[in-house]
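Query structure, 456 tokens:
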């Protein structure tokens, strides 16, 4: 192929990594990226830092600037929405969102990294003013303005996952009264098991966040702007609503062309190929092979999309790739006021969703030897391990403390990725220095505890 034309749809993590990899591997390739939005490319995972004034500028909260890729040889067109794939002609139809005109662009290879969009609850009153979403540049700047507005006294956040927790913390730090609502009965209940969410629920309430969990949102009340959230457990008076109630694949435009599952995720084979020739898909709009679950699962993480892009770029011109995409563990971390946690692989919720039988073990101790006082940097630490009850193969886990031990989550991720067992982790050779840890390291002790061994 003389000068292959590669089109990338979406300037998210997957799209960005795809362009970087393609330009590096194939200097002769003609690479074009289309992005429907105006701002390229806002990192919503950095929104809390922006809201809390911990970044240089809102315009810096991005993966890259268009010029970064243009200088490397790519074409980057923002305000250009891909609306259709014409598989027989091998073109995509692209609408210029500024002037409304449309044009077809040819491709030899097409990479879909269209991502997801946040759920806006379709309940009565959803079109009232002051009901926001927690995603993207425009919403970030609007929320920031409201956090600085003294007339906004109370903020209600819908959704107690990562994004909702970030919104709650930023709002409290801005001096607002905050109520956090969710249909499930635990904050972060899909990410952590109950031993840890109990700790974090207390932390949230201690920091002034009112929790109303296990409630159903029935609508929004107000004349012009929202004044209350209506739930099956009563109304919550409020000045502002931030919705963080999950996401859905941004794939409506692909229906009837690309195979989708019943939830709208793009179906791909083990080589990240769609049903259309020379059309591939990566990122949040796809399901990814989970190493722990040993099946395809939804894992909407930047780390996943970038690993898929790296694999895809290496194999995009191979008719028969030497190996399929190896899958991912799925790891993430978050601060909840004074606490920090990291989680990898499966927990009881995600294991149940995937039909995987697991056992768990919760271990708590101090980070360093007992002769070091807590006030001198020896706080309580918690570890939850998730494993196969028959083989003891590690399937997931989490760490939690007011001290930042989140790097230990990467050790759990590596253990899951390489199929280590509790016995392996119990004997793994980690360093010891009392200024940092115990004679047996924290994860050694947690695995020994899971095996029922005497406490050190």
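Result returned for the query:
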């Amino acid at each position: 192929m003389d000068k292959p034309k590669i089109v990338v749809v979406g300037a998210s993590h997957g799209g960005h990594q795809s362009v970087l990899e393609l330009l590096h591997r194939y200097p002769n390739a003609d690479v074009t990226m289309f992005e429907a939005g105006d701002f390229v490319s806002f990192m919503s995972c950095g929104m809390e830092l922006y809201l809390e004034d911990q970044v240089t500028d809102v315009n810096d909260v991005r993966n890259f600037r268009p010029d970064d890729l243009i200088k490397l040889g790519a074409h980057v067109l923002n305000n250009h929405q891909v609306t259709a794939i014409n598989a027989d002609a091998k073109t995509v139809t692209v609408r210029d969102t500024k002037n409304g005109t449309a044009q077809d662009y040819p491709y030899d290879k097409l990479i879909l990294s269209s991502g997801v969009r946040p759920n806006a609850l379709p309940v009565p009153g959803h079109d009232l003013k002051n009901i926001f979403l927690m995603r993207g540049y425009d919403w970030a700047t609007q929320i920031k303005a409201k956090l600085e507005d003294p007339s906004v006294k109370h903020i209600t956040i819908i959704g107690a996952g990562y994004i909702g927790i970030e919104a709650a913390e930023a709002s409290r730090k801005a001096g607002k009264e905050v109520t956090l609502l969710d249909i499930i009965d635990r904050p972060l209940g899909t990410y952590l098991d109950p031993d840890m969410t109990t700790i974090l629920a207390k932390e949230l309430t201690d920091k002034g966040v009112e929790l109303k969990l296990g409630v159903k949102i029935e609508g929004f009340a107000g004349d012009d702007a929202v004044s209350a959230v209506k739930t099956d457990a009563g109304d919550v008076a409020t000045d502002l609503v931030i919705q963080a109630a999950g996401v859905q694949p941004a794939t409506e435009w692909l229906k009837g062309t690309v195979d989708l599952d019943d939830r709208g995720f793009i179906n791909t084979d083990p080589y990240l190929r769609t049903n259309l020739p020379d059309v591939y898909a990566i990122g949040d709009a796809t399901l990814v092979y989970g190493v722990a679950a040993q099946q395809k699962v939804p894992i909407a993480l930047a780390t996943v999309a970038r690993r898929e892009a790296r694999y895809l770029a290496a194999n995009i011109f191979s008719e028969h790739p030497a190996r399929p995409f190896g899958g991912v563990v799925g790891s993430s971390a978050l601060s909840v006021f004074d606490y920090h946690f990291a989680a990898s692989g499966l927990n009881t919720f995600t294991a149940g969703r995937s039909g995987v039988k697991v056992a768990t073990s919760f271990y708590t101790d101090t980070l360093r030897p007992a002769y070091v006082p807590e006030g001198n940097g020896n706080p309580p630490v918690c570890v939850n391990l998730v494993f196969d009850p028959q083989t003891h193969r590690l399937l997931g886990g989490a760490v939690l403390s007011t001290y930042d031990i989140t790097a230990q989550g990467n050790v759990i991720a590596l253990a899951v990725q390489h199929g280590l067992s509790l016995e392996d982790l119990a004997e793994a050779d980690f360093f010891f220095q009392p200024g940092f840890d115990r004679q047996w390291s924290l994860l050694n002790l947690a695995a020994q505890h899971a095996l029922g061994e005497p406490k050190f």
